[in-house]
């Protein structure tokens, strides 16, 4: 796939049409413009990510969040172009913080918020708002992955250790049993 090889920079209607063996005009019958293709790629990336998240089976909401962090890491490293499509493409239909997340338009963030609410109701997480915890968790995950993909870690092994440590620390920082 052209996107897999070259990313968004390698996409044009003409190059996509050539890659799939149709004329540019035939491609326009399916996609109005490059923006429509970017949105389709983004949705495909999110569908793949959502499928991974749906496989996380864990009753304890805090442990579920930890497993989500691991699933995100695996998604980003094993399917980097789909990760890029889901989280980094400038697509016109991308979900916007905070409204789309507060309104549950992101299936994964809805699950995250549900788990955070469950953990809060059990007394496992403190008084920070659900959306604040979800944003911190997802921003940390995506930020660390972006650093790794940009070559800011010496090795994948060191990155994985740092990533899991930071995710664990992030979740722990919101727990109610913190000792000061």
What does this structure look like?
By secondary structure, this protein is mostly helical. It folds into two domains: 1-30, no CATH class; 34-173, Tetracycline Repressor, domain 2 (Orthogonal Bundle). The chain has ten helices and no strands. The longest helix has 21 residues, at 34-54. The protein is globular, with a radius of gyration of 19 Å.
In angstroms, what separates the terminal alpha carbons? Answer: 52 Å
Uncertain runs? none
Described by strand count, sense and barrel closure, the largest sheet is: none
- Give the mean pLDDT: 91
Give the tags.
globular; Tetracycline Repressor, domain 2; 2 domains; 180 residues; mainly alpha
Short description:
This protein has 180 residues and is mostly helical.
């Amino acid at each position: 796939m052209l996107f897999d090889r070259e990313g968004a920079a390698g996409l044009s209607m003409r190059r996509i049409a050539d890659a799939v063996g149709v004329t540019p005009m035939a491609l326009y019958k399916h996609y109005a413009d490059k923006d429509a293709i970017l949105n389709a790629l983004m949705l495909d990336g999110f569908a793949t990510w959502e499928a991974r998240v749906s496989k996380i089976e864990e009753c304890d909401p805090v442990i579920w969040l930890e497993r989500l962090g691991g699933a995100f890491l695996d998604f980003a490293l094993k399917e980097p172009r789909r990760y890029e499509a889901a989280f980094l493409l400038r697509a016109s239909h991308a979900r916007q913080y905070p409204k789309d997340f507060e309104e549950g338009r992101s299936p994964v963030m809805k699950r995250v918020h549900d788990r955070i609410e469950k953990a809060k109701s059990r007394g496992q997480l403190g008084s920070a708002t659900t959306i604040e915890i979800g944003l911190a968790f997802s921003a940390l995950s995506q930020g660390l992955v972006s650093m790794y993909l940009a070559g800011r870690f010496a090795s994948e092994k060191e990155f994985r250790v740092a990533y899991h440590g930071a995710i664990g620390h992030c979740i722990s920082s919101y727990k109610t049993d913190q000792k000061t």
